[in-house]
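A favour, since you know our structure tokens better than I do. Could you add the entry underneath, on a fresh line?
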Amino acid sequence: MSELLAGAYLAKGTIGNVGTPGAPIATFSLVVVPSQHSVSGTVVITQAIPGPDSHIVVSVTGKIYATGIGNVTQVVSLQGQYVHSVPPPAIGSFLANFNAHLAIDNAWNGNGGFSYFNHTVENVPVASVKNLKEELV
């Protein structure tokens, strides 16, 4: 049973143009189990524009595979759904889809993109948190 989680680790970082005013940023915190090619965790999308899409929390699952192609050593896909509320004067909520794709190195740095209700962000940097312990302090 312990072999199922062999090599599991935490990956944490961002997808998007961090520092660009108004740019949507997806911050991820994922448990990666390479032996099972599985990824699961949480993505938080933030944007400095008021509205229903300014702060979204998505539970995600996905796949990770090794590539062996130059600097891109891994590819990751993520999927999830979240409740999207319609702004007034309309009333209501519905499940919206989230998808992300990453082409990264072993340190979780590279390129990628993500999409969520009526938004698509392509060819943006993926950057890992440099030191998790520093982030927790």
